Structure formats: structure tokens, C-alpha cells
Amino acid sequence: MSEVVLVTGVGPGTGKAIVERFASDGYRVAMLARSQERLEQIEQQTPNASAFVCDVADEAQLTETLEAIRSKHGAPKIVVHNAVGAEIGTYAEVSPDKMRRAFEINTMALLALAKQLIPDMEANGGGALICTGNTSAYRGKPRFAGFAPTKAAQRILLESIAREAGPKGIHAAYVAIDAVIDLAWTREAYAGKPDDFFCRPEDIADEVFRLALQPRSAWSFESIIRPFGEVW
Q1: What one-character DSSP code corresponds to residue 89?
Q2: Beta-sheet strand order (sheet of 28-33)
Q3: What angle do helix axes 148-165 and 109-123 make, rounded to 10 degrees?
Q4: CA atoms within a 13 Å half-sphere pointing along the CA-CB vector of 57
Q5: Angle of CA points 150, 105, 154, to nearest 5°
Q6: Which of 28, 87, 119, 185 lies in disulfide reach of 146, CB 3.0 to 4.6 Å?
Q7: How many domains does the chain have?
Q8: DSSP 3-state assignment of 209?
Q9: Per-residue pLDDT for the chain (232 aa), expressed as one digit of tens each?
Q10: d(CA 161, CA 231)
Q11: DSSP code for 107
Q12: CA nearest 69: which of 56, 87, 82?
């Protein structure tokens, strides 16, 4: 029986590309997102992918969904936390409630996934827990006051998980995307930018796949990716 991959935050961009990358290699992929219509469309187009409607910020709902995945497919071997919550604005502008929700999605959902799924990985001989992140995990720009703290906390939490779970055979890794991802709305927002300005979801998915399958003798914790022309 093929191994199970769980991907949160599956939308039309990076999440969908990650699902397709693993499914194309024979993995059974459990897809989580809040939009049932979006998930069903991807499910219909992608063999080996199953839709599970879930708000990862709701721990009770997430727990129920993880039980449904175990019942249908078995325990996930690889988990990719791609769901993201963002509250954009300066410290004077951000909504505390929206920032709390972003923290629930980005950081607390990661904690719940780790607590509930890493024991299964340990029992089954190993696994991988990967987060997709961005530059906000490393620096706080003025208008990212409500977002950067939640992503920085996510990265540091994952590092703590890596130090504890790594010696037990669980590879925790953070993929930071220092780029504008190539999506319909970003193309519109950055009209006139050349193709080389954008980071393609398919290429991000390839990097996630590579990290998930790294040999134990050479694990990476952080991978920072950007288009070749990006100034950094």
C-alpha cells in the first residue's frame, strides 16, 4: 500500500502543486482546506488525492479530520503544513483578532499536527513534517507587523520540533519562499513584471518533495528559495 501524505491549505497555487507532485509519484494525498468546492475540483483532476474540508485553526475540527484520514488511508508518513493566515498592516493598523487567527493557523495548527501525527511517524519508523514559509519568518517589515510574528513563531516552533523529533527519525524542515508566487492574482497585482520575477508553484513543490525524501545522513532544516533575479 502506498504511503500517505497530508497537505494543509490546498488552493490553486502552491498547495495544489504539492498535492500533484506527491500524487504523481504514487503517494495517497489527503488534502485539507476550508473550501469544499476547490478541493473537489482538485480531487476530480488528481488521481490518488482525497478531499477533507477542515479549518486548521479549529483544533477540534482538525482532530476530527485527522481521525477521518487515519480511518480512510492510515497514518500520514509526510505532512506539509502549507495553510497560511495573514494580517497585513503596521502595528497601529492590525486587528488583534485577525492576528490571533493568523497565529492559530500558522503556529498553533503546526503544534496540533506535530502532537497528533509525530507519534504515528515514530511508531512507523520515521516521517517528515514540512512547513512552507516566507521571508516574514526572518524579518519584520512595517506593514507585516501582524504577520511576521506568526511566521517567525512557526519557524522557531518547527526548529524546536526538529531538535526533539529528529533523533527519533522525524525530519522537520522549513521551506522559506523569498518571492512572489506565480498566481493569477499576483500576475494582476504585479502586471508588467517578467516571468522571471515570479516563483512557480511547481518548482516550490519540487523542493518540498526533495526535502521530504532527503536521506537521513544529510537532512536540511531550512531551505530558502527565490527566483534567480531576486534581490536579497
Answers
A1: B
A2: 49-53, 28-33, 4-7, 78-81, 127-134, 170-177, 222-225
A3: 20
A4: 15
A5: 40
A6: 87
A7: 1
A8: helix
A9: 689 999 999 999 999 999 999 999 999 999 999 999 999 999 999 999 999 999 999 999 999 999 999 999 999 999 999 999 999 999 999 999 999 999 999 999 999 999 999 999 999 999 999 999 999 999 999 999 999 999 999 999 999 999 999 999 999 999 999 999 999 999 999 999 999 999 999 999 999 999 999 999 999 999 999 999 888 8
A10: 31
A11: I
A12: 56
How much is the CA Rg of the chain, to the nearest whole Å? 17
First-residue to last-residue Cα distance in the chain: 44
In a domain, 26, yes or no: yes
Give domain status of residue 230, yes or no.
no
Please, are residues 27 and 5 in contact by the beta-carbon 8 Å criterion? yes
User: What is the torsion angle, in degrees rounded to the nearest 10, for the CA atoms of residue 213, residue 121, residue 9 and residue 111?
Assistant: -120
| Cell 519562499 found at | 177
CATH number for the domain spanning 45: value is 3.40.50.720
Q: Report the alpha-carbon distance of residue 75 to residue 94 in Å, rounded.
A: 38
- Structural domain boundaries enclosing 151: 4-225
Classified as helix, coil or strand, 75 is coil
Residue 44 covered by a domain: yes
For residue 190, give every residue at least 6 positions away whose Cβ sits within 8 Å of its Cβ, in sequence order, or none.
Answer: 180, 197, 198
Contact 22, 4 (CB under 8 A): no
82 occurs within a structural domain:
yes
Q: Which DSSP letter does residue 136 get?
A: G
